[in-house]
């Protein structure tokens, strides 16, 4: 290796950064094209949201929607620790096809910019820009599938890991803004929250227990009062955790904080769904297992519950 291209940071197993700025990714780089999925009967296509930042999304809909019927909208933010993955990665593409089939929704999977080339908060700003685009003058966004099929009274934000972290911050920001999009509910799957002081399963992981931080982006319990359900500005919140996931205890703590405030105002319903014996985003890594079927079923039921 030449002196001009030494390793400056090795983020195993995701990527390696070199001193000349080159980034080598080892995960999340595979992709599949949009189109018709014969297994689920779902159509998808790639769209551009903002040419100035190259912000794009992959949008999904069932092949057949009865004429005049409007269906819920799920805006999805993928995981990957803010540094890997995309909507085109096979496990995310197949997962969204499955959700659209089971929940009968229109889904918009946002392709936000990744670090380290685009340091945080770029991912949050792109994610917010996607919501602004969706608002599009009160649901008049210039996208045929949304215009024809979307019920803008039933918009859900959903995400896994880093994506679940993102929707927490989006919900707070939307509630404090005048953005003309109503968020009916949040689906947070194995949310990526962390902190300086390890808790629960984190204490047993020597490699990561000393790497926490209390940046407000990562730790929602710093910088003021703990998060409340009312601050999220929606009617319902579902938090999914997995028993063996090192992030499980943070997700439970987040749920307890919201549940306490739920009891105080009675306006928001908060649910916790724990999958026993499974680890982080198991439903994407092992989509054919019984537990994954249960997760997708719970997710679809949450969206379609009146």
Summarize the structure in words:
The chain has helices at 90-103, 122-139, 144-149, 162-175, 248-265, 282-285, 290-304; strands spanning 7-11, 15-18, 23-25, 36-37, 42-50, 55-62, 71-77, 106-111, 150-160, 183-189, 236-242, 269-275. The protein is an alpha/beta fold and 306 residues long. Helix 2 packs across helix 4 (162-175). The longest helix has 18 residues, at 122-139. The model has no long low-confidence stretch (mean pLDDT 92).
Helical fraction = 25-40%
- Give the tally of β-strands: 12
Quaternary structure state of the chains depicted: single chain
Distance from first to last alpha carbon: 60 Å
Inertia-based shape = globular
Mean pLDDT: 92
Largest sheet: 9 strands, mixed
User: Can you write the helix and strand succession as a string?
Assistant: EEEEEEEHEHHEHEEHEHH
Strand content: 15-25%
Residue stretches low in confidence (pLDDT < 50, at least 5 long) are none
Number of helices: 7
Task: Give, in spatial order, the strands making up the sheet with the most strands.
Answer: 4-5-6-8-7-9-10-11-12
Provide the structure class.
Answer: alpha/beta
Instruction: Give me the Rg, rounded.
Output: 19 Å
């Amino acid at each position: 290796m030449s002196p001009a291209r030494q390793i400056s940071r090795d983020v195993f197993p995701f990527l390696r950064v070199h001193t000349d700025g080159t980034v080598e990714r080892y995960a999340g780089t595979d992709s599949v094209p949009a189109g018709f999925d014969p297994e689920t009967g779902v159509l998808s296509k790639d769209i551009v949201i903002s040419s100035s930042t190259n912000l794009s999304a992959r949008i999904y809909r069932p092949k057949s929607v009865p004429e005049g019927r409007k269906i819920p909208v799920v805006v999805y933010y993928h995981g990957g620790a803010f540094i890997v993955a995309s909507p085109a990665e096979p496990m995310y593409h197949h997962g969204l096809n499955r959700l659209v089939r089971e929940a009968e929704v229109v889904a918009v999977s946002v392709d936000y910019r990744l670090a380290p080339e685009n340091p945080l908060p770029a991912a949050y700003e792109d994610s917010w820009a996607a919501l602004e685009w969706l608002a599009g003058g009160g649901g008049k966004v210039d996208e045929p599938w949304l215009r024809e099929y979307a019920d803008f009274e039933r918009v859900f934000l959903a995400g896994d890991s880093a994506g679940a972290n993102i929707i927490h911050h989006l919900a707070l920001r939307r509630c404090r803004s005048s953005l003309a999009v109503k968020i009916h509910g949040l689906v947070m799957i194995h949310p990526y929250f962390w902190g300086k002081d390890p808790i629960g399963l984190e204490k047993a992981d020597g490699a990561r227990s000393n790497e926490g931080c209390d940046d407000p982006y990562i730790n929602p319990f710093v910088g003021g009062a703990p998060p409340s359900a009312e601050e999220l500005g929606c009617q319902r919140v579902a938090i999914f955790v997995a028993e063996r996931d090192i992030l499980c205890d943070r997700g439970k703590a987040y749920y307890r904080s919201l549940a306490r405030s739920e009891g105080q105002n009675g306006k928001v319903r908060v649910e916790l769904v724990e999958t026993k014996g499974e680890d982080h985003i198991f439903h994407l890594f092992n989509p054919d297992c019984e537990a994954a079927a249960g997760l997708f079923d719970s997710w679809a039921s949450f969206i379609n519950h009146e």
